[in-house]
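User: Could you check the structure of this?
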Amino acid sequence: MGIRIVALLALLTLQPAFAQDAKPTQQSIRELLAVMQSHNMVDNMLAQMDATWGPMMKQSLAGRQPTEREQQIVDDAHAKIQALLREQLQWQNFEPMMIHVYQNSFSQKDVDAMKAFYSSPTGQQVIAKMPLVMQQTMQAMQQHMQSLIPQIQEIKQDMTQQLKAEREASGAAAAPPPAASSPKPQ
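Assistant: Sure, the predicted structure tokens are below.
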């Protein structure tokens, strides 16, 4: 009987530690996502993607001035992409996924602490400035990647040459030796 009481007391004293590691509730995550203005993130992402698709579509013309019909084709494709993105990238589609990810990544204690931070004036400033931070980060990453393209192309070219040499070497080794030509009897 004494052991049961000690075990029960031990469980009661450990319960707060277990509770801190509990998975967050869907409601607490919804509240966090609302405080973080996560729905705006989707809208910002759509705007950035739209800004990216226009120039990419024009690149498909290889720098030449499109005919009126070609421009119509590009414009139609751009409109279809915009419609597809707007249909698929809606907050209602993302929220269940985000809830699942947050439940698998954070404890209730983490979610509560994030809600407290993002509800604070500093947290709200972070939220307000985050789209600009993300935009500048993406621009910096694109510039950095542009500087890597020549190196990547060089590696790719080297790989292509090595593969060609390997195929030629393997092909020569795999080919049967030429048959000795014997004079044809006449």
